[in-house]
Amino acid sequence: MKIDAIQLREVQMPLAHPFETSFGVTTGRRILLVEIESESRSAWGECVAGEHPYFSDEQVDTAWMITEMELAPRLLEAEISSGRDCPALFEPVRGHRMAKAALENAVWELDAERQGIPLAKLLGGTRATIPCGVSIGIQATPERLMETIARELAAGYQRIKLKCKPGWDTQIFAMARERWPEILLSCDANSAYRLDNPGHMAAIESWEQFHLLMIEQPLWHDDFYFHAQLQRRINTPICLDECIRNRRDARAALELGSGKIINIKVGRVGGFTEALAIHDVAQEFGVPVWCGGMLETGIGRAQNIALSSLPNFSLPGDVSASKRYWAQDIIEPEVTVSPEGTITVPTTPGRGYAEQRDRIERITVRRRTLRRGNAVTA
User: Fold this and answer.
1) Active site residue 265
2) Which of these is catalytic: 100, 161, 260, 265?
């Protein structure tokens, strides 16, 4: 397989509703999309790097630069057989996993198109539908949060995840659990707590009473050791997110006992190849995984659906409907969730959702096209 051209685009999309985490409030997204062309076919990838280097050390401008100067030239000058060849091709470039994932995932999608099979099947997926949860950001008031939870439960979502931080945690968990005693309820701290803070630890230990499905990444974003200490102090499963960058991290964390669940975000780990390897390591340890969201457009969301069809994605993920985030998505049909809280995995070749080129053109604010033969690897 030879890639003839790679087009980089930055699109800008306002969120349907502000989304607040412990990092701050997001009202709109600058998103790097890549389109690769090969023998009259094209496929797309989405870089999930944010506007600021808060979740990770990447952001959209660094991703653009590294893709244009390093990654795209390497891909254009190579001859590859599948997406699994991309990690070795990109290995000389340290880090920049979200930029790498955008290109690698596009290659997987292109390969599925060439073979005439669904992307889910190419990845090894076995599910016809996937269970869906929803991630709810920090709200203006606890009452507003309760209204939001009620609306999402009415929409059918099977799991409610609440973003939390010190001062926005115990009270809202208590309110939610009192009103809905039986729902699957979890929280995501985005590394906002510290093991050496007595107030933080007293709060986390008190959450046992709420029977949470999991506490996601409560401590430092790059830590296994202290998460293992915390997991020994509480019964509630810790879910590891930011600190799992690859299969080696997953194995080390699980051997240490740092958590009992892993959130796999394909952009965070550098692409489908590493995501599949982490899935397999977790399955070996008997640890369930689920697919986390990064405020993706429909392109990234469709690829998350395909990944979530693998057998060990046994917990409801954050792959929710397009309309939760966008007034208008860039795919058709948009991603929808059934009243039972599931998404049907596409059975058509490739990602299963067509890109809306006219819509993408309207929201594109910059672009660059690189072609085979004109790119020089540094």
Assistant:
1) yes
2) 265
